[in-house]
From TrEMBL:
It comes from the Eukaryota. Residues 715-822 form the DUF7077 domain. This is Trafficking protein particle complex subunit 10. Its main location: Golgi. Keywords: Golgi apparatus, Transport. It comes from Steccherinum ochraceum.
Length: 1188
């Protein structure tokens, strides 16, 4: 070890055998077989001083002849590894004959045994080798009681442990069973010897450490002693224990350093030739152990040696990431320590050359150690990142040297690497007072030639970029790119630098690296100005990105080179304004953080004298100077994608809060969410989108939507939809658009309707009606109204295609109009309305035939939750005269007005009397009705008009008064029941104020509280006309079941008393009529029919012809008789008779036999008969035989 090298000592096993055997071919074969079983695997060491078992996965062992080992008595007194001496001594016996063993071999073993047992901390083993062709082997020597092995064990196993093993070796080296016992004995012997040796050495270390506070204790001597433990563990592949030992030594060194007791060391550093260029992790570059023993090692050499030993052990553990981590930490920390030394004691640039060479050597050493190893993905990324840090550390040394020699300017990013104690001024260079010079070749060349320096600088930087990119460290890689761009600027390569500085911010922005982003953009702006390029679109975007980074970065020391950043930013803003004004095309920039939008109130405000709404907006400007602009606009998004835009013309935005009032000409009432904001500056638009991302895209920050409520302007233009006043089924469908001009005198209004359901509107067939004249122009996709006076209401009837498949139809309305007051302003009003396309009432028809008369009952119910008020129903014939069919309505005398709901239908009965039976013209059911809401609004409008007729001011507030009353009624439906009965309209929860509107509300409420006959109220009524066909029936049968009187009674008209169980004679008659038969079947004179008397098994027993067929002829009667027996007494209903028609023979329709329609009514259906209980007494005389 005098040469200063530290190599791993392998475990040694000595062997001894008779010389003639060692010279034979047999031994060569046995020796080769022994080597094939190495290295040993899976050794388990249990130390008494360690709680856990240590597992040695693999252990290299060296077999050497005992004759070649030197005498242990001449070993060095310097503590060495415990593996320096053999741990196991083996004697190889080749003897199959017991006599030979007794006479010769035994003495040889005894002499060897007496020698090896005297050696401390060494084990011995006797190996009996049995030849494969020997007689003993063929006879299974393990089973021979008097074998040589047994004699050996009896002679030498004096302790409980068995140190003798038999090896029946064969040419098959791979047979594990043949070697199992031998391998186990070897493992046992090695671990036993190692445990004893290491225990003794640890005891020595503890004893020495306990004497630390005593005079004469030497740290260097203790280090050598304890290091022998580490090298011993390392030789046994117990790397964790070896590393722990070195870590403990390092911790002890720091304690000594803290105590400032460095008498066992030399100076901090005594530079030797090539100290700044040799590999950092080499332990053979200096005789470190000799220097330690001599107490002359410097702190620099000691720290270097300790780091190298730790890294070598980490390499054995395959922990190369920790090797790089330790190296980075050591070079950074110890480099700072070396710079604290007086500069004259070190060669000029020694620290930089040493750190540079050491960092590169560690990377090369790690790459060499990593060959053949496979890293997981995450571990490989960390490994590359640490190597990148080492390369960057080497690059920092070039920064320091380059600034000092004048190759680089003393400004960021180069000056970032300068130590804090060295002034950041290239003129203050280090004075060299040492006669030595650095020897690092790359550094020397770089110092002499500037271009060589630049080439080396770029090479090292690109190498760091590659490693950072491989590790996924984008930020660090991009930072290196920025330093290359800064180097291009210094070298005058401005075009290349501008391209780099312009492209890098796009990579920084997604990760929030605002300081780096701002610096790169600042450099790009400066270079852009230096090159003299035009302030084009690219320049504008660079400037906007710079202002973004300027706002977001808290520390602005990296952003601006000038002292006054406000003046600097003001100049940039002025240049931005000029560039936006001169830009040839429109430019848009999204989500710039220099401005933020706040809506202080969630309610917009209407304007009294014109249509539109005002929205108050606060815009916060984070720039330190005013920003000239043209206008600010805020877009609100409503339901189904509708949007309204609020705009305000603004000359500039001041720093801080700017309170603005934006106006929208066309603001439909409703609730909207804040969609986007735009700040217009000539041809540059700054836009912020506030709405959530589309479905499927995730947003980093989930912000609740900002809601804005736009109130309804009761005096603005409005369009409502409703069903037409007269609905007639079978005609072209249409809807009515109610256009209200409000306060406006409208020059022209273009009305467009569209239905998402696909229904088309027929504008060419549209018609308009109004109290005043109005001009209507038809277009292919719109209708245009012109010259509309203020307050005018126009009813526009708009036909459309079939919509019967829908109960209600959604209609999107767009009104584009101009007013006389603002002819240059085109307002576009977008509305969404819903209109019922189905009838407001559902109709169910029931027909009851009675001879020549027909009773038809119509049941009407509401198809919506709204109540429907029915004024009248009328069934009229469409024929040329009314003498063929007489229609009579059954009118209830109680009241005329009927209210129907879904739960409370209305029934209306009509009688149709056909004298001749030839009337078949269709009928029309006419229903006059109005919805309850419409009726109530008409009542309130009538009362309001009566109250405000004398006040012009109140007349202008009429829509507001009506809206207050309607909203009060909508909130509480308790008034409905009283109103429907008495006509009294009690308005709930209306608080009247002291103003004119309050006084008017008091009068209106008093008038509405009065009772009124609503059927006489002069309001508008709607009408529904529904075609109704006269029902037809081939056969009408009238069945009758009559109890016949007693034919033997003196009074035939007297009713017959009926008793339970008594047979009763009954007459069944069926009268048939073809009066209501279809005209096309009038030629049929008769039909085959079948009757069937109902079985009432609980009341009647029917006997006789209770079922049968007969031939029906018009206006004739079929008669038959049956017998009835009442099963119990009481008032019983007679059985019913079912009459059905049979198919017509020979007549088919749709490939099926024709079955005539037939209806039967029971003439006796409401009749009952009284059945008496059977009573009375009967006397019978029974003959008992002749008398004597």
């Amino acid at each position: 070890m005098n040469n200063g090298t530290t190599t791993t000592q392998r475990v040694t096993i000595t062997y001894t055998a008779p010389p003639n055997f060692l010279a034979s071919e047999h031994w060569k074969q046995v020796y080769a077989a022994l080597l094939s079983q190495l290295p040993l695997r899976n050794l388990h060491w249990k130390s008494s001083f360690r709680p856990n078992i240590r597992t040695i996965q693999e252990l290299d062992v060296t077999f050497v002849s005992a004759e070649t080992r030197r005498d242990d008595s001449h070993t060095s007194q310097i503590p060495q590894t415990v593996l320096e001496k053999p741990l196991l001594n083996a004697y190889i016996v080749v003897c199959d004959d017991a006599d030979t063993y007794k006479n010769t071999v035994k003495k040889q073993i005894k002499d060897w045994h007496s020698n090896v047992t005297q050696r401390k901390n060494q084990e011995w083993l006797i190996i009996h080798v049995v030849r494969p062709d020997s007689k003993a082997a063929s006879q299974r020597l393990f089973q021979i009681k008097t074998s040589v092995l047994d004699k050996i064990k009896a002679d030498f196993n004096v302790e409980k442990r068995d140190r003798c093993v038999q090896l029946v070796w064969s040419y098959d080296h791979d047979n594990p069973t043949a070697w199992a016992e031998f391998i186990n004995k070897v493992k046992e012997g090695l671990l036993c010897a190692f445990d004893a040796a290491i225990t003794q050495r640890e005891e020595e270390v503890r004893r020495s450490e306990g004497q630390r506070q005593m005079p004469g204790w030497n740290f260097c001597t203790f280090f050598i002693l304890k290091e022998s433990l580490a090298t011993s563990f390392e030789g046994m592949n117990l790397h964790e224990d070896a590393l722990d030992t070195y870590n403990e030594l390092e911790a002890l060194f720091f304690e000594v350093l803290k105590e400032k007791n460095l008498s066992w060391f030399g100076t901090l550093i005594t530079p030797a030739p090539k100290d700044d260029s040799v590999p950092l992790l080499s332990t053979s570059k200096k005789p470190y152990r000799d220097l330690i023993l001599a107490n002359t090692i410097t702190i620099f050499d000691f720290r270097t040696y300790l780091l190298a030993r730790q890294c070598i052990i980490l390499r054995g553990m395959r922990h190369l990431i920790e090797v790089a981590q330790k190296s980075v930490a050591f070079l950074s920390a110890f480099g700072r320590r070396l710079r604290e030394v007086e500069q004259g004691s070190l060669p000029k640039y020694f620290v930089e050359a040493w750190a540079y060479a050491s960092a590169l050597s560690v990377v090369e050493q790690c790459d060499a150690w990593a060959k053949g190893l496979e890293f997981p993905k995450v571990a490989l990324a960390n490994f590359n990142a640490l190597k990148g840090e080492l390369i960057e550390l080497a690059r920092h040394q070039l920064d320091i040297v380059g600034i000092n020699v004048g190759h680089l300017p003393s400004r960021p990013p180069f000056s970032i690497a300068l130590p804090s104690r060295i002034p950041r001024d290239a003129s203050n260079q280090v004075v060299d007072q040492s006669s030595q010079k650095i020897t690092q070749a790359d550094m020397l060349k770089a110092l002499e030639d500037k271009e060589t320096f630049y080439s080396l600088y770029s090479k090292i930087t690109n190498r760091a970029i590659e490693l950072y990119a491989a590790a996924g460290r984008r930020k660090f890689a991009l930072k290196m790119h920025g330093s290359l761009a800064a180097l291009d600027v210094h070298r005058g390569r401005l075009s290349s630098a501008l391209q780099t500085f312009s492209s890098l911010p796009a990579h920084y922005a997604p990760h929030g690296w605002t300081s780096l982003e701002a610096y790169m953009l600042s450099q790009a702006l400066d270079i852009h100005a230096s090159v003299g390029k035009a302030k084009d679109r690219d320049w504008v975007y660079i400037l906007l990105d710079f202002l973004k980074a300027y706002i977001q970065d808290l520390g602005k020391d990296l952003l601006l080179t000038g002292p006054d950043h406000v003046a600097y930013v003001t100049g940039l803003v002025d240049a931005l304004t000029a560039a936006a004004r001169d830009a040839p095309t429109e430019m848009t920039h999204h989500d710039h953080p220099a401005f933020s939008v706040e809506i202080p109130s969630s309610d917009a405000k209407t304007v009294e004298k014109r249509d539109g709404a005002i929205l108050d907006v606060n815009i916060h400007c984070s720039l330190p100077c005013p920003l000239p602009i043209d206008e600010v606009s805020v877009t609100l998004s409503g339901r189904d994608g509708s949007k309204i835009i609020f705009v305000d013309k603004v000359s500039s935005l001041e720093p801080g809060k700017n309170a603005l009032s934006l106006f929208c000409h066309s603001a439909s009432a409703g609730t909207y969410s804040l969609h986007s904001t735009q700040v217009k500056m000539s041809n540059l638009t700054l836009q912020w989108v506030h709405s959530p991302p589309p479905t499927g895209k995730q947003s980093r920050v989930k912000r609740p939507p900002v809601l804005v409520r736009v109130p309804r302007d009761l005096h603005a233009v409005d369009v409502r939809l409703r069903q037409p006043q007269r609905i007639q089924l079978g005609t072209a469908p249409s809807i009515v658009a109610v256009f209200t001009s409000g306060r406006n005198e409208i020059r022209s209004a273009i009305l467009k309707l569209s239905a998402p359901s696909g229904v088309k509107f027929l504008y060419k067939d549209a018609s308009a009606s109004s109290e005043d004249q109005v001009l209507l122009e038809h277009g292919t996709d719109s209708a245009t109204l012109s010259d509309i006076a203020p307050g005018q209401t126009i009813l526009l009837s708009m036909p459309h295609t079939d919509a019967s498949a829908y109960h209600a139809m959604r209609v999107n309305i767009t009104v584009e109009y101009t007013t006389a007051a603002e002819p240059d302003v085109v307002r576009i009003l977008q509305l969404v309305r819903y209109v019922l396309t189905a009838l407001p009432v559902a109709i169910n028809v029931e027909d009851f035939f009675r001879g020549t008369r027909l009773f038809t009952r119509f049941t009407l119910s509401s198809t919506s939750p709204q109540h429907v008020r029915i004024l009248s129903t009328e069934l009229v014939s469409q024929g040329p005269g009314d003498d063929g069919l007489k229609i009579t309505k059954c009118i209830s005398p109680s009241r005329r007005l009927t209210t129907i709901t879904p739960a409370q239908p209305g029934r209306f009965l009509f009688q149709l009397d056909s004298a001749r039976g030839e009337e078949r013209d269709p009928l029309h059911l006419k229903i006059r009705y109005r919805m309850l809401r419409e009726e109530v609004e008409q009542v309130m409008e009538s009362i309001i008009d009566d109250v405000i007729v004398e006040s012009e001011a109140l007349a202008l507030r009429r829509p507001e008064i009506l809206d207050i009353l309607v909203q009060a009624l909508e909130k509480d439906p308790a008034w409905v029941s009283l109103y429907e009965v008495t006509g009294e309209l009690v308005i709930p929860n209306v608080t009247a104020g002291e103003d004119d509107i309050g006084q008017a509300l008091v009068q209106i409420k008093k008038l509405l509280d009065k009772s009124r006959r609503l059927e006489e109220f002069p309001g508008e009524w709607r009408e529904i006309i529904i075609p109704v066909d006269v029902p037809q029936m081939h056969i009408l049968a009238a069945a009758s079941l009559r109890i016949s009187s007693n034919p033997f009674s003196a009074d035939p008209s007297k009713a017959l008393d009926l008793f339970a169980g008594q047979p009763i004679h009954a007459i069944l008659t069926i009268r048939t009529s073809f009066h209501w038969a279809p005209m096309e079947d009038s030629h049929t004179k008769s039909y085959r029919m079948r009757f069937d008397v109902e079985e009432l098994s609980k009341d009647w027993l029917v006997s006789g012809r209770k079922r049968g067929d007969f031939v029906a002829v018009d206006d004739e009667t079929f008669t038959t008789s049956i017998t009835l027996i009442a099963l119990h007494h009481g008032e019983l209903a007679l059985p019913k008779v079912a009459v059905t028609a049979l198919p017509l023979p020979g007549e088919h329709r749709m490939k099926a036999q024709m079955l005539p329609s037939c209806e039967t009514y029971q003439i006796h259906g409401a009749q009952t008969v009284l059945v008496l209980p059977r009573g009375g007494r009967s006397t019978f005389v029974v003959s008992m035989g002749d008398s004597a």
